[in-house]
Amino acid sequence: MKAIVIGGGLAGSEAALQLAYRDIQIDLYEMRPLLKTGAHNTDMLGELVCSNSLGSNDTGAASGLLKEELRMLNSFLIKVADRHKVPAGNALAVDRDLFAKGITEMINSNPNINVVKKEFAEIPNEPVIIASGPLTSDKLTEKIIEFTGQKNLYFYDAIAPIVEKDSIDFDIAFMANRYDKGETASYINCPLNEEEYNNFYNILINAPKIELKEFETNTAKAKVFESCMPIEVIASRGKDTLRYGPMKPVGLTDPRTGRYPYAAVQLRQDNMSATLYNLVGFQTNLKWGAQKELLQSIPGLQKVSIIRYGVMHRNTFINSPFVLSKTMQAKNNPNIFFAGQITGVEGYTESIATGLLAGINLSNHLLGKPLVELNNTCILGALSSYITFDKHKNFQPINSNWGILASLDLDKKILKNKKLRNEYYKERAINYIKNV
Predict the structure, then answer these.
(1) What is the torsional sign of CA 129, 135, 137, 138?
(2) N or C: at which end does the chain have fewer Cβ atoms within 10 angstroms?
């Protein structure tokens, strides 16, 4: 039996490996490097283009629970992530190059997967998983619009800068996790006093921005996903919004003063050798010269060497509530499945999760087995339920979160205790996944 997977990102790679594991022959199409996206830097499969963090690894958080569900469901990409993780407190962050190399090698060595470096610009009649990602090519986007009968929605996403650790001044910057959580300090912290913060803020709000490219037109109606909000957009909402967001100082004691700073910039390890760090929450669309001025106004980063500047790009996604069933199968064609950010899930782990579900279900479809339809007592089931709920009036991308899970029938005192309540959510989800 044969199938096609379009897209070699996180969702497509996971889907291909799930199909191959079940002895389905796969043609995996990846248009890079023949056709570039404007966000990717390599031709490797599973490349991470934004942060190098897959989010929390703590099962007391919804994102961490989703990872545990994926481990139980035999996710191949989570195994690769676990192998190439770097220190990041409670988060699962990876060396992005080793992570992508690990995925690429796993797929290239699989006898059931044939990687085709070519743009796939049609929707085939044969069984297929469309996991072309948020930067789907224009030609394929047109075909998807024709197929779905719905106008594609879109939002804008931004990428944070990466800098060299050796260029950071550790007479000012210090290593620490917020509230000292985790066994070892994983984050570099740059403290700012009120005067330094005011200077930073004034540079930021007056900095010139990069004009969006031709394919990113109609900017007046551009929607920006909240979790990847450019720092300049956050700053435009008020002078203190950054101090309550990505520059929150609480839980970080400056060793020079013994107190929390007025504001703080955190940097997270980006590669295994710990030579590169990315600025947490610093997604931006500022012009590169302005980015350099802004970063070098931060205490500890006055002479910082910037390896990659932040950029902003369009992300496309389909109107899944009208297009898909909870199995990730198209409602109007049982041979066609979708997976990844194009379905309206947001986040690396969520993309892997939908790739896993689509891969399992296309396999079952080909093998004549019942398709897996998870309920919303687990995070993956809740995600698939949310993005396919046909009563949405204004469908927008979603991360894993506790709010999408089925409510708990518990005493009100327990429900008010967030930590205890989440433990019940976790226990219920894990018990459910054990029986899938």
Answers:
(1) positive
(2) N
